[in-house]
Amino acid sequence: MLATTDSKHSKPTGFDDIIAPVEASLHALTAFLDNQSNEFETEVREMVAYCLKNQGKRIRPVLVFFSGWPITTENQDLLVRASAVVELVHLATLVHDDILDDATIRHNSDTASARWGNAAAVLLGDALFSQALKLASDFPTVEVCRAVSLATRRVCAGEIRQTFERGNANFALDEYFRVIELKTAELFKVSCFLGAHLNGYSETAVNAAAEFGRRLGIAYQIYDDLADILGDEKKIGKTLGTDLASGKYTLPTLLLLQDGHISSKELLEIKQSGKFDHEHFLGQLRDSGIIERVHEIFLKEIDAAEAAIISVQDEFQAGEYLLRLSEFVRLQMARYS
Fold first, then answer.
1. 190 in a domain, yes or no?
2. What domain range includes position 55?
3. What is the pLDDT of residue 131?
4. According to the model, what pLDDT value does residue 238 have?
5. Mean pLDDT per 10-residue section of the chain, whose length is 337 residues
6. Is residue 118 in some structural domain?
7. What is the pLDDT of residue 333?
8. What is the required cofactor set for this protein (predicted)?
9. For residue 255, what are the CA distances in angstroms to 178, 230, 284?
10. Range 206-212 contact pairs with CB under 8 angstroms and sequence separation of 24 or more
């Protein structure tokens, strides 16, 4: 075994504590991705290395490793490669997202579009997608490539739908949830699916892991949407306020609209100017009780995620770690609630 832990130890609360059981695997992933830069043509190698260096918590690879637990000398290479595939797809979506949102900061560094321009960034994202699918095709089973290809297509579909709905004050809540299930939850889902599948768990356990990932992904996007409004740009390390300024109406804004606390005219003015009065908008959210309602919806998804894992806890050895991760996301959301 490469990593073990004792469930009798005190429950970890910090992210570094939570991922400690897979720290060695994450280091292996970093080394693998660093080497991936050399797989690209010289024209884009520097750009790829820059994007790989400016990464966040790598939650999706963590999901692959936890869902594939226990990690052994026999399965680590497969899990590292699978997590690299997911991370490259995720990285490609971020490059494209930042273009659409006119974001200039990501993880306290310039975005690819701010550094090289939108045209080059679009093609860079395409190159990252392509390399991810190339790695997926190298697996001995076609199931990995099939799952990743489907997930990538669904992520793109979600982004396209969101792009078409920019500035649409009549964007329905069910459509919002459809978009975030595609654009965010899909990669969480496929991460858990790949880990559990590659470690040979039963179909029931694999499906439960995938459902955990899907629900956690929805909850995480709701948290991220609220953080875009309430967060501190320096602490979070990315451009905030881009959702409203670009006409991307997320759950807090849609609930304000639904309840009549803000008008479509006001949203149109924000979109046209590209700016919004942060303090005024924050006051609207607090006075209307929208923050509490967003938190309730978030908790519904987190509870469902945990229930999926608990249902297979007798077989699924990684359940403890996945539950710790969901608890961490709960705590992150609580800061804004």
1. yes
2. 15-334
3. 96
4. 54
5. 40 83 96 94 95 87 97 95 97 92 86 96 96 95 95 95 88 95 97 97 96 98 90 59 77 91 81 72 89 96 98 91 96 88
6. yes
7. 95
8. Mg(2+)
9. 16, 16, 11
10. 208/308, 208/309, 208/311, 208/312, 208/316, 209/67, 209/308, 209/309, 209/312, 209/316, 209/318, 209/322, 211/304, 211/305, 211/308, 212/305, 212/306, 212/308, 212/309, 212/322, 212/326
Which CATH number do you get for residue 101?
1.10.600.10
Q: What is the pLDDT of residue 10?
A: 45
**Residue 189, domain member (yes or no):** yes
**For the chain, how many structural domains are there in total?**
1
